Amino acid sequence: MLKLEKLSSLRLFGQLENTFHVRLLPRNLTDLTLSASKLSVDPMPELQRMLKLKSLCFYADSYTEEKMVCASGGFQQLERLRFWNLKNLKELDVIEGAMPKLQEFEVRSCKKLKVPTGLEHLKTIRIIKLRTMLIGFGKETQSLVDEKMPLVIVECDEMITNQGSQPSQKAGGIIGDGVAVLVN
Q1: Which of 39, 71, 172, 182 is most buried by its number of CB atoms within 10 A?
Q2: Do 109 and 157 sit in the same domain of this protein?
Q3: 129-150 core/surface letters (b: 16 or more CB in 10 A; e: else)
Q4: Average pLDDT of the chain?
């Protein structure tokens, strides 16, 4: 794949080797999506070395472990980060200085995930999208935003009351400090 110098977007579907080697990917990638990759080693230390990466998406079972860490200085160009249906993910640690250009963070159906530590370090983030997440996760995220991230919009859709799949009541409005919370 290294010879595909003009390739900017890549979607990998299916199981990959546990050690994800960025050096095997085209250097000009700006968009990477992983799905059903079943990675059991945190891929962030490798992926953060992709200097042009602007969008990174982890979909259904692309990562099977409980923790990911975004190190300081990593993901210098990343603007969008998505986690969808990562059943085991519990922790995302964002070290200050990581993802300095991130604008959008989206989480769907990651029911074990706690509010990421260090989320408040993302000074350029403007929107956090939550779908099919626990109501408690939504409330904690909103509380953090209200307290430390006043320019961020939190969109919530189909929030659930427990580990099951019962949708919450639908509502919407402006909550504290002009922060919009949209619940469909």
Answers
A1: 39
A2: no
A3: bbbbbbbebbeebbebbbeebe
A4: 86
Domain final position from 60, 87, 118: 118
Task: Fill in the DSSP letter of residue 39.
Answer: B
Residue with tokens 């968009």: 31
Whether residue 84 sits in one domain with residue 37: yes
Confidence at 51, pLDDT banded by 50, 70, 90: very high
Largest CA distance in the chain: 51
Domain end (from 75, 102, 118): 118
Q: Residue 131's beta-bridge partner residues?
A: 108, 157
Determine the residue type at 110: C
8 A C-beta contact, residue 76 and residue 56: no
Q: Give helix then strand counts, H and E, for the chain.
A: 2, 11
At 3-26, the pLDDT tens digits run 678 899 999 999 887 666 777 888
Look up the pTM and report it. Answer: 0.85
Do 62 and 110 lie in one domain? The reply is yes
| Closest by Cα among 68, 18, 66, 28 to 44 | 68
DSSP state of 161: S
